[in-house]
Amino acid sequence: MFFFRSSTQLNLTFLYRLKHTISILSSHRLFKRHHLLPSIQQAIKMSSHVPSSPRFFWGDQPEESDYYASRGVKNHQSFYQSPYGRIFTQSFHPIDRETCEHVPIKGIVFMTHGFGSDTSWLFQNTAITYATWGYAVYCADLLGHGRSDGIPGYIGDFEAVAGASLSFFLSVRKDPVYADLPAFLFGESMGGAVTLLMYLRSPPDTWTGVILSAPLLIMLEDRKPSKLRLFLFGLLFGIAETWQVMPNKGVQNLFRDPDRVRIILANPRRYTGKPRVGTMRELARMCEYVQGSFTNVTVPLLMVYGTADGIIAPVGLKMLYEKARSRDKCLCQYLDFYHSLIQGESEHNRNKILEDMMEWIDERVEMYGCGITKTVKAEEVWE
After folding, report:
1. Domain 64-382 CATH superfamily
2. Could you confirm whether 157 is annotated as catalytic?
3. What region holds the Serine aminopeptidase S33 domain (predicted)?
């Protein structure tokens, strides 16, 4: 059995041990001679206040139901038992802000977050926005993330990670209430690669389109894991799989807006440890696999990325655009935008990207849909 402690708990443990050590050393003549004890005690006192995270990304108030209603959506949360483990899921359906009654939807979107994130913090802002456009939106925490099963930050098998979310997405997609509506996959960063893998593992004609926001398809050279390091850890017969010992090479040009950075860092479920051995091995393997499968992509495709992105290699999107056999494909680049296009950019930049996404998805609904809209209550699908 594994037990995990939050960074707050670890800080408190460290402070307790530090106080204990100081109590032992305080009688030492060097401490008394140089009057170090009062200064150290004051530093400990100042450090003892560990700020707690707010309850939600918007703060401690209002309550969830009231907040969602003010945004014009209804949220439903649950857990889904997939063949690979239990995952946390939630949905967002558009409602009338005044009456709180459900309004007709024109399609459904299934969203996947990036590495270290989850669907319950700032990422859900994207889901809420799509719902206000008239879509039912479903999200799932990846295995090893958020409230889903698994060791935090550990992805030992990308097929299992993608398979868990895909199992849930397909269970919703096949529900009779959605069967005749257009359906889209959405993924950002590492979640973009997972989304592409889910598409490749889906039955033909399941999806109307795929939207990828700064997807991790090719790793930058300076961010690739050392093959020698992976080989040496591999000699330990799997013992080192979950070790948090891979170099953390930073997050250059990840977020632009400092206010959004503070919100993102306050996420109590965000993974903040060093990369795990198995995770980095699987990231490298998955990137190689999806690159070899680009020609199998035939679905309408929208890809967006920022030219100042310091996490992904843009050449990966260009390769996908060139090799995909989709007749309807669009690659959009945003000058000087960072990696986190929707969560981390300024409000102006974020709105620009969302406007382009809304135009694209609405056009595909009109092009490939049957002109059907229907009112669907989340409870009708979850029961």
Report:
1. Alpha/Beta hydrolase fold, catalytic domain (3.40.50.1820)
2. no
3. 105-342
User: For 291-295, which contacts have Cβ atoms below 8 Å and span 24 or more sequence positions?
Assistant: 291/217, 291/218, 291/316, 291/319, 293/196, 293/200, 294/319, 294/320, 294/323, 294/324, 295/323, 295/324, 295/325
**pTM score, two decimals?**
0.85
Contacts of residue 350, defined as CB under 8 A and 6 or more positions apart, other chains included, come to: 341, 342
Q: Is residue 49 annotated as a catalytic residue, yes or no?
A: no
Band of residue 250 on the pLDDT scale cut at 50, 70, 90 = low
Instruction: Give 169-206 pLDDT, tens digit per residue.
Output: 999 999 999 989 999 999 999 999 999 999 999 999 99
Could you tell me the two tokens for 247? 């170099």
**H/E run at residue 199:** helix 190-200
Domain boundaries defined on the chain? 11-47, 64-382
Neighbours of 47 (CB within 10 A): 12
Task: Check whether the bond before 62 is cis (ω within 30° of 0).
Answer: yes
What is the amino acid identity at position 82?
S
Q: Is 189 known to be catalytic?
A: yes
Q: How confident is the model at residue 103 (pLDDT cuts 50, 70, 90)?
A: very high
